[in-house]
């Protein structure tokens, strides 16, 4: 057997072109036919192929003999190849909306994308994480998450300011429920409710499926805020379309789940349901 390491400066030229250039490690027989193959891309993705895993949706093991005279300058030792072959491969999934998400090192059902600009928050770069995605083969979750993200990522500053009243009310309700502090004065003195966003700091976006009732995908935009420094703020959008919860970060996607009450008694969630149900059946998407 012979072993080679070669850098390819060209990108893939397909739907995964944004992965960047690649570094190939190859094991071949004496005629140059590959028997094992490693592809390492600029974005961190590593693909491995052999006779047991000769093909997947991203590519496959080469089925043509290499020109060994051309490759001789790239020859490496078996030891070097085996070191790469035995190295751990970071699992990933691909979203049509946000690209590659890598499996989190601590939580196996969390998948993280690189921070990206979010129009809803003045194009601040925020990390998006898929939660509770157990299998890379769960294409239904990924497809529904992409649909929700398409809706959410189309939202702009105008949409955010449309939520200023609710956000300001949430702030004042919290301040009224706790002991008054001198530092709260600037919040109570806000005249233009759009200014409330000057005291909100977006941190992460989590995409997950509600585990009961509608079982839809929800997008949870978590933030720090000046009025609730311990538990922060979350803005939750059902299917990425409409705000269905604004609250402290308490681990629940809806008020009805948090307080174990019917969805129809959840004001924001019920408003979403009513708006959705007004549409003709052929325009409905769940």
Topology summary:
Blueprint: E1 2-8, E2 22-28, E3 34-41, E4 46-49, E5 55-56, E6 59-60, H1 68-71, H2 78-86, E7 92-95, E8 99-103, E9 111-113, E10 116-118, E11 124-130, H3 139-153, H4 157-161, H5 164-177, H6 185-188, E12 200-209, E13 217-225, E14 233-238, E15 242-247, H7 255-258, H8 267-277
Parallel strand pairs: 11-12
Antiparallel strand pairs: 1-2, 2-3, 3-4, 5-6, 7-8, 8-9, 9-11, 10-11, 12-13, 13-14, 14-15
Structural commentary:
This protein has 286 residues and is of the alpha+beta class. It has two domains: 2-89, no CATH class; 94-283, no CATH class. The chain has helices spanning 68-71, 78-86, 139-153, 157-161, 164-177, 185-188, 255-258, 267-277, and strands spanning 2-8, 22-28, 34-41, 46-49, 55-56, 59-60, 92-95, 99-103, 111-113, 116-118, 124-130, 200-209, 217-225, 233-238, 242-247. The strands form three sheets. Strands 7, 8, 9, 10, 11, 12, 13, 14 and 15 form a nine-stranded mixed β-sheet that branches. Strands 1-2-3-4 form a four-stranded antiparallel β-sheet, covered by helices on one side. The longest helix is centred in the middle third of the chain and has 15 residues, at 139-153. It is elongated and about 80 Å long. The N and C termini lie far apart (54 Å).
Instruction: Tell me the Rg in angstroms.
Output: 25 Å
Biggest sheet character: 9 strands, mixed
Provide the succession of SSEs: EEEEEEHHEEEEEHHHHEEEEHH
Quantity of strands, as a count: 15
Shape descriptor reads: elongated
Beta-strand proportion: 25-35%
Helix content: 10-25%
Q: Helical region count?
A: 8
Mean of pLDDT: 94
Report, as a whole number of angstroms, the end-to-end distance: 54 Å
Low-confidence segments, given as residue ranges, are none
Class by SSE composition = alpha+beta
Q: What's the number of domains?
A: 2
Pfam families: DUF6985 (PF22481)
Domain DUF6985: 105-253
Protein name: DUF6985 domain-containing protein
Organism: Persicobacter diffluens
